[in-house]
Amino acid sequence: MNEQVEAFLSPKEEEAIVEAIRKAETQTSGEIRVHIEATSHGDIDARTIEVFSKLNMHKTEKRNGVIIYVAVEDREFSIYGDESIHKKVALDFWDTTKSVIQEHFKKGAFAEGLQQGILKAGKELQAFFPLEEGDENELSNEISKG
Questions:
Q1: What pTM was computed for the model?
Q2: CATH at 79
């Protein structure tokens, strides 16, 4: 594992991010994950979709998974939502979530940026994918690293 990836967040910060995912998912049937790598090795959007697939996020029942992908060395991040989300929302749907994350990242507040972005994403998804009775948590809330 890359040192920069490991140093990006402290264990306490990782716990806070996982808690933000849990909280966001109490508002929506959407599934949110965070993935951190050293570099995307090129096109960050293509890499985000590749990781989305590797994590089997496309296998949720409602196809409403969301990944926040961070490339630490590249100083970039990307958000990608599965096909059901894209069928229902405008192209600029993730812009407000990206802005929230970016604001904090610019100040070096990476954990806070991810937490606030996750909570914002949960709130935004709620309008299209409200939490329903019997909804199951289909994906791990843990941060994945590559």
A1: 0.95
A2: 3.10.310.50
